[in-house]
Write a structure and sequence with these properties.
By secondary structure, this protein is of the alpha/beta class. Helix content is 32%, strand content 15%. It has one domain: TIM Barrel. The strands form four sheets. The protein has an eight-stranded parallel beta sheet, covered by helices on one side. The protein has a two-stranded antiparallel sheet with strand order 1-2. Strands 11-12 form a two-stranded antiparallel sheet. Helix 1 packs across helix 2, helix 2 crosses helix 3 and helix 7 crosses helix 8. The structure holds NADP nicotinamide-adenine-dinucleotide phosphate (NAP). The site of NADP nicotinamide-adenine-dinucleotide phosphate has 27 residues, from helix 9.
């Protein structure tokens, strides 16, 4: 059983990112010992990639864990994200994140969502300033003095990335999106691969909502005792060339999530096609769902580049 805590993927700025990281969305916003404990435990077990966000409200707790872990700062790949309410003040928001984390640089700074919130908290329309292109051009400035080693985006699709790339001087190093066998986003993966943008999979084990599906546990069983559906889902994510950032507060699961297996071509194909089963093509986060009526955080699916089809979603 190979441990892959040391597997890294190369970014388009020449640096590299550990393929498996630990996600710090704890299910609710807020600082606390539970965050610090999870990150310290992860670092102790060998994780060297931490994903947080201003929006998670826990950058101080993550920074505390980093300092208390004893792991040298330069050994850890640290990601945080620009909140939707901060698109008009990138420099200020970035400095606030560095201060909360207690670090002098981050390895990756992501625009969390393409849509911006205005002063009153309402969502601005795509053509209203600050547009995501304007925000991106401001983010590019953060690279100059190394306070951000790389910049990227999150929740972007082919449509929004195409618009961004038409104006960008810097190609995003990463696009972090929801990815798992119910939402594999094959077209987006091809698009990003062709342009040197690494996809990072959030909710990579589908929030554990379908890891016990018989089609997945059958693959797990074929790899021997102790191999779980979660490990199969993470193995698929890394084997298709994406980074994965599962979140768990449990020691045994943190260990398990670092232990990937090699999947055969047939197993990869089964997982690649999993979403085609009736009712399977879905977001586990609820960002794309019929219940939302075709919009997400104030933008229509058309504006986001997401399309809703009868009986499923096409992204
Ligand atoms: N950019 C964005 O907009 C965005 C959006 C969503 C998430 N994210 C990032 O992605 C990270 C991960 O996503 P996520 O938390 O939504 O989903 P996830 O990692 O797919 O699933 C997390 C859930 O699965 C459970 N779990 C973890 N490992 C397990 C295992 N081996 N076996 C069984 N259950 C397991 C966890 O419970 P326990 O903790 O109880 O073990 C938790 O309930 C977040 O923490 C965040 O950093 C980013």
């Amino acid at each position: 059983m190979p441990a892959v805590s040391d597997k890294r993927l190369t970014l388009n700025n020449g640096t590299s990112i550990p393929a498996v990281g630990v996600g710090c969305w704890m299910g609710a916003c807020g600082e606390g010992e539970h965050v610090t404990n999870m990150v310290k435990l992860a670092l102790d077990l060998g994780y060297r990639h931490i994903d947080t966000a201003e929006n998670y409200g826990n950058e101080q707790s993550v920074g505390k864990a980093l300092r208390e872990s004893g792991v040298p700062r330069h050994d850890v790949f640290l990601t945080t994200k620009l909140d939707q309410s901060d698109h008009g003040r990138v420099e200020q928001a970035f400095e606030t994140s560095l201060t909360k984390l207690g670090v002098d640089h981050v390895d990756l700074y992501l625009m969390h969502w393409p849509m911006a919130y205005g002063e009153s908290g309402d969502t601005l329309q795509p053509e209203e300033s600050p547009t995501f292109v304007e925000t991106w051009l401001e983010m590019e400035q953060l690279l100059a003095d190394g306070r951000a080693k790389a910049i990227g985006v999150s929740n972007f699709n082919v449509k929004t990335l195409t618009k961004l790339l038409a104006h960008a001087s810097v190609v995003p190093a990463v696009n972090q999106v929801e990815l798992h066998p119910c939402l594999p986003q094959h077209e987006l993966l091809n698009f990003c691969n062709e342009r040197g943008i690494l996809l990072t999979a959030y909710s990579p084990i589908g929030k554990a909502k379908f890891a016990d599906d018989p089609a997945i546990t059958a693959i797990a069983a074929a790899h021997g005792p102790g191999v779980t559906g979660a490990r199969i889902l993470l193995s698929w994510g890394v084997q298709r060339g994406t980074a994965v950032i599962p979140k768990t507060v449990h020691t045994e699961r943190l260990k398990e999530n670092l232990q990937l297996v090699h999947l055969s071509a047939a197993e990869m194909e089964t997982l690649d096609r999993f979403y085609r089963r009736p009712g399977s093509h879905r977001s586990v986060c609820g960002f794309h769902s019929a219940e939302l009526g075709g919009s997400c955080f104030g933008w229509t699916y058309e504006q986001l580049g997401w399309a809703m089809a009868e009986g499923g979603i096409h992204l």
